[in-house]
Specification:
Elements: H1 3-14, H2 26-43, E1 49-50, E2 54-55, H3 77-91, H4 96-116
Antiparallel strand pairs: 1-2
Helix pairs in contact: 1-2, 1-3, 2-3, 3-4
């Protein structure tokens, strides 16, 4: 899976899919993704170990790498999507509906993390 595929999955969950009406650019989702990775690495250190790369250090993924294959195992995808969707809705948290959506996505990413063994 490529990083841009992960962003596309998040866009589907936030209904931010129409190219001429997208609320966030890929770079904003990428910032949320990098934050999610840092959170994941701190809560689930085993997520840093991949079959292809071995032990990975935390480093920001850049916009030029969006088309690259993701080193993280696909079991982390739900957590990452929920986390990025949480950040998306939290950005519009002055609106009650968006705040409720952000809270629902936060509960979902925490549940996904708990399922992975993180706390």
């Amino acid at each position: 899976m490529k990083y841009v595929d992960l962003i596309d999955m998040t866009r589907l969950s936030t209904f931010d899919t129409l190219p001429d009406q997208q609320t966030w650019k890929d770079s904003k989702y990428l910032m949320a993704f990098n934050e999610a990775r840092a959170y994941l690495f701190s809560k689930c250190p085993e997520s840093r170990v991949t079959a292809a790369v071995g032990l990975t250090d935390y480093a920001l993924i850049s916009e030029t790498s969006l088309g690259s294959d993701m080193a993280l195992d696909s079991i982390y995808v739900p957590f990452l999507v929920y986390y990025m969707a949480h950040k998306f809705f939290l950005a519009g948290s002055r609106d009650t509906v968006n705040l409720q959506k952000a809270q629902a996505q936060q509960a979902a990413f925490q549940q996904a993390l708990a399922a992975l063994g993180g706390r």
